[in-house]
């Protein structure tokens, strides 16, 4: 159910920062028409850190309703407060999300034991499939492989989005977990090798702007077609790099506007993309066939 190209959806916003639900409806359709396998709203790329609780829940409800069961929806519901994580996860369950993505608690820097207790509390409180999310570059908290293996033994923790780009860590987690535990890449630049090493897909930023090509890459990897995967990856390499010339989601939202899919709204403290990078990103979009 959860494999392939899982797009970490950007959130369209008006110039005043309000969520643009008309555009969001069209954006869900864009991804379904272009072979995205799973929709992932309200995560890092969706500017979840600037959404209030009501907006966060409404965003999830809207995407689930618009998707109408045609593709699975994994809702981002992680927080650095265990209680808030439980509340957001319950909201996603009530909305009909198929699973929830729980980033490690950020800023407060829990210990590995603190991580275990945090996730155990959420798993006990809300009966929905949960996917761990490790992105230490943003959270200042690194979930080590033995901790992920320990948490994998909980019935409703079904996988991990591992965004360090460390292939050896992927292999270490795979070796320690029971069969069926999902390893999902969170780093587009290393996603091909991650999947060829046993990962089941990617929660991708690049897939926002090149959904069909990213789906092609994922399917080639999952089918063991290395040459086909390398060909697709070669066309994506520039985007995988250049979508991070400034903090995500600044570049990807600029690209979506350039493609005519989004208005230009973004919320502070995120700012519009510097004009110094406009031509760089246009070229990357053209190489991927997105412009």
Supply Rg.
18 Å
Query: Could you state the CATH homologous superfamily?
Result: Aldolase class I
How many helical elements?
12
Strand arrangement, major sheet: 2-1-8-7-6-5-4-3
Low-pLDDT runs of 5+ residues are none
- Beta-strand percentage? 5-15%
Mean pLDDT across all residues, rounded? 97
Helical content stands at 40-55%
Indicate how many domains the architecture comprises.
1
Please give the CATH class: Alpha Beta
Main sheet attributes: strand count, strand direction, barrel closure: 8 strands, parallel
CATH fold-level label: TIM Barrel
CATH architecture: Alpha-Beta Barrel
Shape: globular
Q: Which structural category do the helix and sheet elements fall into? A: alpha/beta
Beta strands, count: 8
Distance between the termini: 31 Å
**Oligomeric state of the chains present here:** single chain
Q: What series of H and E elements makes up the topology?
A: EHEHEHEHEHHEHEHEHHHH
Quickly list its features.
single chain, TIM Barrel, 45% helix, alpha/beta, 291 residues
